[in-house]
Design goal:
Elements: E1 7-15, H1 19-37, E2 49-53, E3 67-68, H2 71-76, H3 80-83, E4 86-89, E5 92-98, E6 103-105, E7 119-121, H4 123-136, E8 140-143, E9 147-153, E10 156-162, E11 165-167, E12 173-178, E13 182-190, H5 197-205, E14 216-225, E15 235-241, E16 250-256, E17 261-269, H6 279-286, H7 290-296, E18 300-310, E19 321-322, E20 325-327, H8 343-363, H9 368-371, H10 373-379, H11 382-389, H12 401-413, H13 455-460, E21 474-476, H14 479-489, H15 494-497, E22 503-508, E23 511-516, H16 526-530, E24 536-538
Parallel strand pairs: 1-2, 1-13, 2-8, 5-15, 13-20
Antiparallel strand pairs: 3-7, 4-7, 5-6, 9-10, 10-13, 11-12, 14-17, 14-18, 15-16, 16-17, 19-20, 21-24, 22-23
The chain binds iron/sulfur cluster.
Iron/sulfur cluster binds near residues 499, 523, 524 and 527.
């Protein structure tokens, strides 16, 4: 279908209103103010900065553990402590090793788990607050608009096409159809988070890949309200061991928040071998550990979410500049996978991008040569120092937890080098092993409805909403593979790794079929990452759809 699109022009278009995108917008607006006040030419305007956010409001799709290292925010908003919605400073940090029935506290908290000086926050609340500052600075922030495709022009990009609204499930326009806009910009900044759909297109088309492919972990999280006194606000615990099998990378977290709230979750590396492994179920088991159960008993589930986390670090960072644009935040791999912290780097990368963009606008040149100043600024910032010291961390776990801990110890004393530098890895889906006679479980995990839950109950608590009558945003490029090969070779792992019960193999009159319950999708991107045949392409649904991670 050919559609006429309204064209809008901006100086700068930022896709994604997470910490990176918002920091870029706010810092650029501040820089423009100073630039104009100095009388320098050309005069610029914050109104020519557009930010697109696919969630129903700023913060709706923001999910993190989340402990924030305040360095980035302190640079962006020096008096942030006066107004930012910080939940609580970290007051006590601990690391535990779990067996199924016991918890052993490490006598000394290992340095990566030390969190004094950091804050437990709700990333959703924090970005909502930042969004308010961005709007007050004069920037145009559009929620419920997804970047559907890039406008490729010459050797680079010239903006994005936003999502069409009002298409039915067969791809036909409904009465309320509105064509997406053609948003053209001198500079387009991709700040989509982990495994961004536009970033994926761009990296592949412009060949921006680095030494290693990006690898990921998945974090599955619940927010609970517990009985008073069970967990002190500011108490932070990280766990290793059960229920994550030793041949896998992973661990749990428990963070005490104000008002008897507890953030807890499990992270596992998306390079595991067992195609029937189920991260959601593993997290539910985590809550049954006596140490965790004791905290949660008598409490109630408030919210649920899941998200992929970029874990490849420095050696998986794509080239972050190209003609007409930059990549920042999680999309650019700015996350310390050892400390599981990226908010401060996302903010800093957004600020450094803003400084690069101001120089480019003043010069009137958005070519790659000018925008190459961005990675040079990154090199001189704390981002490089921090990422360089953990450049081989996640890769060191590719042969399991014990080898990983040994590698991590060596890297700790050798400034990140370890025995081999760089450690080369393959994309995570290649680690999945075929069933070889193993049978999928006869029954799926149901939970007890009090402490543990099935996926649909959890999806309900994610606030996820999509209009059912729209094209499915999970493009499975060859459904025959699902029923002819995948069922036999891998047992349809999409049914297990998806934490939102989206994929379901059904049988009708003897015919097997893949049913895609796309309305459940919490936008974690795991299917796009882990599908063994790489035939799942996650594209944004109609803007405004997806989870609502309010308070997460
Ligand atoms: Fe995550 Fe894919 Fe499931 Fe959506 S369909 S929740 S992106 S695994």
């Amino acid at each position: 279908m050919t559609v006429a699109r309204e064209q809008l022009e901006a100086d700068v278009l930022i896709v994604g209103a997470g910490p990176a995108g918002l920091a870029c917008a706010l810092h650029l607006a501040n820089l423009i103010k100073t630039h104009n006040a100095s009388g320098a030419k050309p005069e610029l305007s914050a109104e020519n900065i557009y930010v697109l956010e696919k969630g129903r409001e700023v913060g709706a799709h923001q999910l993190s553990g989340a402990i924030m290292d305040p360095r980035g925010l302190a640079d962006l908003v020096p008096d942030f402590e006066k107004t930012a919605p910080l939940d609580t400073p970290v007051t006590d940090d601990a690391a535990f090793f779990f067996t199924e029935k016991s918890a052993w506290r490490f006598p000394i908290t290992p340095p990566p788990f030390k969190n004094r000086g950091n804050y437990v926050v709700s990333l959703s609340k924090l970005t909502k607050w930042l969004g308010g500052l961005v709007e007050a600075s004069g920037v145009n922030l559009f929620t419920q608009f997804a970047g559907a495709s890039l406008i490729f022009e010459g050797p680079g990009i010239a903006g994005v096409i936003t999502d069409d609204k009002g298409m039915d499930k067969n791809g036909q326009p409904k009465d309320n159809f509105t064509a997406g806009y053609e948003l053209r910009a001198k500079i387009t900044v991709l700040a989509e988070g982990a495994r961004g759909s536009l970033t994926k297109q761009l990296v592949s088309r412009l060949k921006l890949d680095n030494l290693n492919p990006q690898v990921y972990s998945i974090g599955v999280k619940e927010l609970w309200e517990v009985q008073p006194g069970r967990v002190q606000p500011g108490f932070v615990a990280h766990t290793l061991g059960w229920p994550v099998p030793f041949e896998m990378y992973g661990g749990g977290w428990i963070y005490g928040m104000q008002n008897n709230r507890v953030s807890l979750g499990l992270v596992v590396g998306l390079e595991y071998h067992d195609s029937l492994f189920d991260p959601h179920e593993a997290f539910q088991k985590f809550k049954t550990h006596p140490f965790v159960r004791k905290m949660l008993e008598g409490g109630k589930l408030v919210r649920y979410g899941a998200k992929a986390i970029p874990a490849g670090g420095w050696y998986a960072m794509p080239r972050t500049f190209f003609d007409g644009g930059l990549i920042i935040g999680d999309s650019a791999s700015f996350l310390d996978s050892q400390k599981l912290k990226g908010i401060h780097m996302a903010i800093k990368s957004g600020m450094l991008a803003a400084e690069t963009i101001l120089e480019a606008l003043v010069k009137g040149d958005a070519a790659a040569g000018t925008l190459a100043a961005f990675p040079r600024k990154v090199e001189q910032s704390f981002i490089k120092k921090q990422l360089w010291s953990v450049r081989n961390f996640h890769q060191g776990f590719q042969h399991g937890m014990l080898a990983g801990l040994f590698n991590a110890g060596l890297q700790q004393v050798s400034g990140g080098r370890g025995l081999v530098d760089p450690i080369r890895v393959h994309a995570g889906h290649l680690a999945l092993r075929q069933l070889n006679g193993r049978k999928p479980p006869a029954e799926r995990f149901k939970g007890d409805g009090k402490l543990t839950f099935d996926r649909l109950t959890d999806v309900y608590h994610s606030g996820t909403r999509h209009d059912d009558d729209q094209p499915c945003h999970l493009h499975v490029l060859d459904m025959n593979i699902c029923v002819d090969r995948c069922v036999r070779e891998f047992g349809n792992p999409c049914q297990y790794y998806c934490p939102a019960a989206v994929y379901e193999m059904t049988e009708e009159r003897g015919e097997r079929k893949l049913k895609i319950n796309f309305a459940n999708c919490v936008h974690c991107k795991t299917c796009d990452i882990m599908d063994p045949y790489q035939i799942v392409d996650w594209v944004p649904p109609e803007g405004g759809g997806g989870p609502n991670y309010e308070g997460m």
